[in-house]
Amino acid sequence: MKRFEGIYPAIITPIDEMEQINEKALAQVIERSVAQGVAGFYVSGSTGESFLLRDEQRAQLIRAVCEIVGGRRDVIANIGAFSTKGSIELAHVAAKSGATAVSAVPPFYFPYSKQEIVQYYFDIAKAAGLPVIIYNIPKMSGVSFKTGELIELLAHEGIAGVKQTTMDLMQTETLVRTCGNKAVFNGHDEILLPALSVGVKASIGSTFSIMADVFIRLMKAFDAKDMERARYLQGKANAMIKTLLEIGIFPAIKGVLKLQGIDCGNCIKPFQPLKTADYDKLEKALADLYDG
Ligand code: NGF
Known about the structure:
The model has no long low-confidence stretch (mean pLDDT 97). 51% of the residues lie in helices and 12% in strands. It has helices at residues 23-36, 55-69, 84-97, 114-128, 138-141, 147-154, 169-178, 192-197, 208-223, 227-247, 249-259, 276-289, and strands at residues 6-9, 40-43, 74-78, 101-104, 132-136, 159-164, 183-186, 202-205. Helix 2 packs parallel to helix 3 and helix 11 crosses helix 12 (276-289). The chain binds ligand NGF. Residues 10, 42, 45-48, 78, 137, 139-140, 165, 187-190, 204-207, 241, 245, 249 line the site of ligand NGF.
């Protein structure tokens, strides 16, 4: 079973004024993260505005990320779509493009039974030809897995892990302890340090695209048992995350990237462009992040 360890940016999708994917900016975001030492990338997730992209754009994005990364790092592609068939089609794109694994948000909007959701994952695992990582994000998907349900899903040989975008650290701890050979990813950047303390080894997050260096140093401090330093770095990151959340996490991340010299455009409408006052706040938060 493939082991996943380290920091995985959930990458944004750079777009131009026509809402077409800007592959040049995508390459810049990826190269900067590779240089910072990330373990891999999570593409076409929430941060990538995947549910605002057309199907062919999601396929284009997955292909482009795999091509740019070129096997140097892991690529996990979120292929979760409204239907099982749609998810499997994207999984085939990911497999052909050389992705390391696929991930899938549970089917949402319609109220499915747990049995239908479990079958959705089993169907993907059978068809994908790649390890499958469950995307547990109750706040966005509206699907709340009980811990026992996740354990049951993780027992399937095709399911390689779960991405825990939840503050429920008790659930995360139980999964780490009981599903030994499966990957349990932290999914909330603001609780990376507590997640490490319950045994998590890998984290997928939106803010890693703008400050992977801070989180990589945090993980190193944790491994070196330097808790004071690790807490300091989590605090620094959290002050930035507070500002991002106040402005709106995804538009704000694109705003920071612009300030850092990579213009990724705005978020797809109905998201609205940032205002000058937002950029002022982000500029200050960035300066605070790197002072000392
Ligand atoms: O933005 C959310 C929504 N979660 C992301 C991350 O889990 C999204 C998290 O990094 C992701 O992995 C994806 O793009 O699919 C937060 O933005 C961060 O912790 C700030 O709250 O829950």
